Amino acid sequence: MRQIPAHELVAEQIRRALELGRFKPGDKLPTERELSEMLGVSYTVIRAAMTQLDREGLVSVRRGRNGGVTVLAPPRDEAGAKRTLRENRVSLGNAFDYRVIVESGAARLAAQRRRAADVVQLRKLLAAMSAHLAKAEVGDQSPHHVTEWQALDSAFHLKIAEACRNEYLFDAVADARRAMWLPIGAIFHHVEPNANDYHDAIVDAIEARDEALAAATMTEHINTTRHTVESWLRRR
Fold first, then answer.
1. 175 Cβ contact list (under 8 Å, min separation 6)
2. For the whole model, what pTM was predicted?
3. 64 Cβ neighbours under 8 A, 6+ residues apart
4. Do 114 and 162 touch, CB atoms closer than 8 A?
5. Do the Cβ atoms of 4 and 48 come closer than 8 Å?
């Protein structure tokens, strides 16, 4: 068995954060010192990880006083992404199954364990998402706007996972979303009109501590997204 070098583990942590929308194109990553302290590794490891991500085209590294690491927009191969999705529909379906099981469980546990501050934060995210959707409805479908929506959507679902106060479940939700968004994100160039459906109802159920309703509504939300994607693939 090959021992995984520390810089590869760091690169995977940052890659994961990028894929989940924690950092968006144009954002600056924390400094080498900050990353070193956050991840408990040396500057050398951080620099090696940044070099790897730079080679992959995910970030741009500039050295010097005014340098830093800037997140880049991921390269898009829409035709290739469509072809890959069609060829791997079983895997895509499995990713949605995974999301349903993990995220409905997270919604159920969040309804049981949520604190008042969790609900406040979820309501703030809902307000931001509604504002973004309103802009999309009047024609703002710029790449930046779509990326902002994806980041808010991820923040919403991860906040529900955070309200469970279970690190294993949080990681499972993050992995489930990555499994879905990695193939879909490459062809996702607009915000669907129904993108915000069910979010309010999910938060209402969590706030009311209605575990069964929170889980059921989350399941319906994810399956609606699944049907939208499957319909999209059938038309193209």
1. none
2. 0.79
3. none
4. no
5. no
Do the bridges between strand 68-71 and strand 59-62 make them parallel or antiparallel, or are there none, so unpaired?
Answer: antiparallel
Among residues 139, 147, 116, the alpha carbon closest in space to that of 193 is found at 139
Hey, what amino acid is at 47?
A: R
3-state secondary structure of 191: coil
Distance of alpha carbon 55 from alpha carbon 45, whole angstroms = 16
Neighbours of 97 (CB within 10 A): 14
Ordered DSSP codes for 80-140: HHHHHHHHTHHHHHHHHHHHHHHHHHHHHHHHHH--HHHHHHHHHHHHHHHHHHHHHHTT-
Closest-CA residue to 85 (of 18, 172, 180, 224): 180
3-state secondary structure of 232: helix
Residues whose CB falls within 8 Å of the CB of residue 56, separated by 6 or more in sequence, listed in order: none
Task: Give the Å distances, CA to CA, from 202 to 37, 86, 176, 184.
Answer: 36, 31, 18, 23
Candidates 179, 192, 199, 177; CA nearest to 146 is 192
Each residue's pLDDT tens digit in the chain (236 positions)? 677 888 999 998 898 888 777 888 888 999 988 999 998 999 899 999 999 999 988 899 988 777 789 998 766 666 666 666 666 677 888 889 999 999 999 999 999 999 999 999 999 999 999 888 887 776 655 667 777 888 899 999 999 999 999 999 999 999 998 887 766 555 555 677 777 889 999 999 999 999 999 999 999 999 998 888 887 777 65
